[in-house]
Protein backbone atom coordinates (compact mmCIF):
# COMPACT_ATOMS: atom_id res chain seq x y z
CA UNK A 1 0.00 0.00 0.00
CA UNK A 2 1.14 3.57 -0.63
CA UNK A 3 2.29 5.66 2.35
CA UNK A 4 -0.33 8.18 3.41
CA UNK A 5 0.45 11.74 2.38
CA UNK A 6 1.37 13.85 5.38
CA UNK A 7 -0.37 17.09 6.34
CA UNK A 8 2.29 19.81 6.31
CA UNK A 9 2.08 22.26 9.22
CA UNK A 10 4.22 25.33 9.94
CA UNK A 11 4.02 26.80 13.46
CA UNK A 12 5.60 30.04 14.70
CA UNK A 13 6.75 30.55 18.28
CA UNK A 14 7.70 26.94 19.08
CA UNK A 15 10.43 27.58 21.66
CA UNK A 16 7.90 27.35 24.51
CA UNK A 17 4.26 27.20 25.52
CA UNK A 18 1.44 26.46 23.09
CA UNK A 19 3.74 26.38 20.05
CA UNK A 20 6.08 23.85 21.63
CA UNK A 21 3.17 21.72 22.89
CA UNK A 22 1.41 21.71 19.53
CA UNK A 23 4.57 20.92 17.55
CA UNK A 24 5.42 18.05 19.90
CA UNK A 25 1.88 16.66 19.78
CA UNK A 26 1.71 16.64 15.97
CA UNK A 27 5.27 15.39 15.41
CA UNK A 28 4.71 12.51 17.86
CA UNK A 29 1.46 11.42 16.16
CA UNK A 30 1.49 7.63 16.20
CA UNK A 31 0.16 7.38 12.64
CA UNK A 32 2.78 9.90 11.41
CA UNK A 33 0.12 11.97 9.68
CA UNK A 34 1.97 15.29 10.01
CA UNK A 35 5.18 16.93 8.82
CA UNK A 36 5.82 19.83 11.20
CA UNK A 37 8.02 22.84 10.52
CA UNK A 38 8.54 24.12 14.05
CA UNK A 39 9.88 27.66 13.86
CA UNK A 40 11.35 29.97 16.46
CA UNK A 41 13.42 33.13 16.63
CA UNK A 42 16.30 31.46 18.50
CA UNK A 43 17.04 27.94 17.23
CA UNK A 44 19.09 27.16 20.35
CA UNK A 45 15.79 26.98 22.23
CA UNK A 46 14.74 24.07 20.01
CA UNK A 47 16.43 21.69 22.47
CA UNK A 48 13.32 21.77 24.68
CA UNK A 49 11.18 20.53 21.81
CA UNK A 50 13.63 17.77 20.89
CA UNK A 51 13.79 16.71 24.55
CA UNK A 52 10.00 16.48 24.65
CA UNK A 53 10.13 14.14 21.64
CA UNK A 54 13.07 12.12 22.94
CA UNK A 55 15.36 13.09 20.06
CA UNK A 56 15.17 14.02 16.39
CA UNK A 57 12.22 12.92 14.26
CA UNK A 58 13.37 13.87 10.74
CA UNK A 59 10.29 12.37 9.10
CA UNK A 60 7.82 14.38 11.14
CA UNK A 61 9.71 17.41 12.49
CA UNK A 62 12.05 20.06 11.12
CA UNK A 63 13.26 23.03 13.14
CA UNK A 64 13.44 26.34 11.27
CA UNK A 65 14.70 29.77 12.28
CA UNK A 66 11.93 32.33 11.86
CA UNK A 67 11.62 35.79 13.39
CA UNK A 68 8.18 37.22 12.61
CA UNK A 69 9.58 40.76 12.94
CA UNK A 70 12.20 40.15 10.22
CA UNK A 71 10.94 40.02 6.59
CA UNK A 72 14.19 38.38 5.42
CA UNK A 73 13.82 35.60 7.99
CA UNK A 74 10.23 35.02 6.85
CA UNK A 75 11.24 34.96 3.19
CA UNK A 76 13.95 32.38 3.91
CA UNK A 77 11.48 30.15 5.80
CA UNK A 78 8.94 30.44 2.96
CA UNK A 79 11.63 29.40 0.46
CA UNK A 80 12.54 26.39 2.62
CA UNK A 81 8.93 25.16 2.67
CA UNK A 82 8.34 25.98 -1.01
CA UNK A 83 8.97 22.46 -2.26
CA UNK A 84 5.92 21.03 -0.50
CA UNK A 85 2.37 22.32 -0.21
CA UNK A 86 1.73 23.96 3.16
CA UNK A 87 -1.60 22.69 4.43
CA UNK A 88 -1.76 24.47 7.80
CA UNK A 89 -0.15 27.72 8.95
CA UNK A 90 -0.24 28.36 12.71
CA UNK A 91 0.53 31.98 13.69
CA UNK A 92 1.36 31.53 17.34
CA UNK A 93 4.32 33.82 18.12
CA UNK A 94 3.35 36.46 20.68
CA UNK A 95 4.56 38.66 23.53
CA UNK A 96 2.87 40.36 26.46
CA UNK A 97 3.24 43.61 28.34
CA UNK A 98 1.88 44.09 31.84
CA UNK A 99 1.69 47.26 33.91
CA UNK A 100 -0.15 50.55 34.31
CA UNK A 101 -0.32 52.31 30.94
CA UNK A 102 1.69 55.36 32.00
CA UNK A 103 4.66 53.11 32.91
CA UNK A 104 4.78 51.37 29.51
CA UNK A 105 7.53 52.73 27.29
CA UNK A 106 6.80 53.46 23.65
CA UNK A 107 9.44 50.92 22.60
CA UNK A 108 7.82 48.17 24.68
CA UNK A 109 4.39 49.01 23.25
CA UNK A 110 5.73 49.00 19.70
CA UNK A 111 7.33 45.58 20.29
CA UNK A 112 3.97 44.12 21.34
CA UNK A 113 2.32 45.31 18.12
CA UNK A 114 5.38 44.40 16.03
CA UNK A 115 5.11 40.76 17.15
CA UNK A 116 1.42 40.21 17.89
CA UNK A 117 -0.15 42.14 15.02
CA UNK A 118 2.42 42.91 12.33
CA UNK A 119 4.23 39.61 12.92
CA UNK A 120 0.97 37.77 12.25
CA UNK A 121 0.31 39.91 9.16
CA UNK A 122 3.83 39.31 7.78
CA UNK A 123 3.61 35.57 8.40
CA UNK A 124 0.29 35.27 6.58
CA UNK A 125 1.60 37.45 3.72
CA UNK A 126 4.61 35.15 3.32
CA UNK A 127 2.63 31.91 2.95
CA UNK A 128 -0.77 33.01 1.64
CA UNK A 129 0.08 33.38 -2.09
CA UNK A 130 1.00 29.68 -2.39
CA UNK A 131 -2.18 28.67 -0.55
CA UNK A 132 -4.25 30.85 -2.89
CA UNK A 133 -2.60 29.30 -5.95
CA UNK A 134 -3.44 25.82 -4.64
CA UNK A 135 -6.91 26.96 -3.54
CA UNK A 136 -6.46 25.05 -0.30
CA UNK A 137 -5.22 25.68 3.20
CA UNK A 138 -5.97 26.51 6.78
CA UNK A 139 -4.65 29.44 8.82
CA UNK A 140 -4.85 29.17 12.60
CA UNK A 141 -4.08 32.26 14.70
CA UNK A 142 -3.43 32.31 18.45
CA UNK A 143 -5.72 35.02 19.72
CA UNK A 144 -6.74 35.67 23.30
CA UNK A 145 -9.75 36.32 25.48
CA UNK A 146 -7.89 39.64 25.81
CA UNK A 147 -8.96 40.27 22.23
CA UNK A 148 -12.62 40.07 23.28
CA UNK A 149 -12.55 42.10 26.49
CA UNK A 150 -10.10 44.34 28.27
CA UNK A 151 -7.96 42.98 31.09
CA UNK A 152 -6.65 45.31 33.85
CA UNK A 153 -2.96 46.24 33.42
CA UNK A 154 -2.90 44.56 30.01
CA UNK A 155 -4.25 47.43 27.93
CA UNK A 156 -1.56 47.37 25.21
CA UNK A 157 -1.53 43.58 24.92
CA UNK A 158 -5.33 43.57 24.67
CA UNK A 159 -5.22 46.35 22.06
CA UNK A 160 -2.91 44.21 19.91
CA UNK A 161 -5.18 41.18 20.27
CA UNK A 162 -8.30 43.25 19.49
CA UNK A 163 -6.50 44.21 16.26
CA UNK A 164 -5.83 40.55 15.47
CA UNK A 165 -9.58 39.87 15.84
CA UNK A 166 -10.38 42.42 13.13
CA UNK A 167 -7.63 41.08 10.90
CA UNK A 168 -8.87 37.48 11.10
CA UNK A 169 -12.58 38.28 10.81
CA UNK A 170 -11.90 40.29 7.64
CA UNK A 171 -9.57 37.66 6.15
CA UNK A 172 -11.97 34.79 6.83
CA UNK A 173 -14.54 36.30 4.48
CA UNK A 174 -12.27 37.03 1.51
CA UNK A 175 -10.33 33.75 1.73
CA UNK A 176 -13.40 31.51 1.74
CA UNK A 177 -13.71 31.50 -2.10
CA UNK A 178 -10.09 30.27 -2.24
CA UNK A 179 -10.99 27.33 0.02
CA UNK A 180 -8.72 28.73 2.74
CA UNK A 181 -10.20 28.48 6.23
CA UNK A 182 -9.21 30.96 8.97
CA UNK A 183 -9.49 29.91 12.62
CA UNK A 184 -8.89 32.29 15.52
CA UNK A 185 -8.29 30.53 18.84
CA UNK A 186 -9.16 32.84 21.73
CA UNK A 187 -7.01 31.33 24.47
CA UNK A 188 -7.67 31.87 28.15
CA UNK A 189 -5.01 31.40 30.84
CA UNK A 190 -2.69 28.56 29.83
CA UNK A 191 0.11 27.03 31.89
CA UNK A 192 3.06 28.10 29.72
CA UNK A 193 6.24 30.16 30.01
CA UNK A 194 4.34 33.21 28.69
CA UNK A 195 4.39 35.01 32.05
CA UNK A 196 8.12 34.39 32.43
CA UNK A 197 8.70 36.12 29.07
CA UNK A 198 6.35 38.97 29.87
CA UNK A 199 7.66 42.48 29.47
CA UNK A 200 6.96 44.41 32.65
CA UNK A 201 6.79 48.11 33.30
CA UNK A 202 9.72 49.72 35.13
CA UNK A 203 9.24 48.79 38.83
CA UNK A 204 11.39 51.74 39.87
CA UNK A 205 9.13 54.23 38.09
CA UNK A 206 7.55 56.86 40.31
CA UNK A 207 4.14 56.21 38.73
CA UNK A 208 4.28 52.58 39.85
CA UNK A 209 5.16 53.59 43.39
TrEMBL record:
GO terms for molecular function: estradiol 17-beta-dehydrogenase [NAD(P)+] activity. It comes from Chauna torquata. Keywords: Oxidoreductase. Signal peptide: none annotated. This is DHB1 dehydrogenase. It comes from the Eukaryota. Belongs to the short-chain dehydrogenases/reductases (SDR) family. InterPro entries: NAD(P)-bd_dom_sf, Sc_DH/Rdtase_CS, SDR_fam. GO terms for biological process: estrogen biosynthetic process. GO terms for cellular component: cytosol. Pfam families: adh_short (PF00106).
Amino acid sequence: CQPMEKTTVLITGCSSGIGLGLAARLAADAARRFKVFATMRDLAKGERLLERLGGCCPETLELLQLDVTDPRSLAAAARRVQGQPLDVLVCNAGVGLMGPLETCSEQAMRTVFEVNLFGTVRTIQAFLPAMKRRRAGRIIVSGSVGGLQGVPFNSVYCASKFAVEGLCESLAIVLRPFNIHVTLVECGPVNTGFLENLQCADPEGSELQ
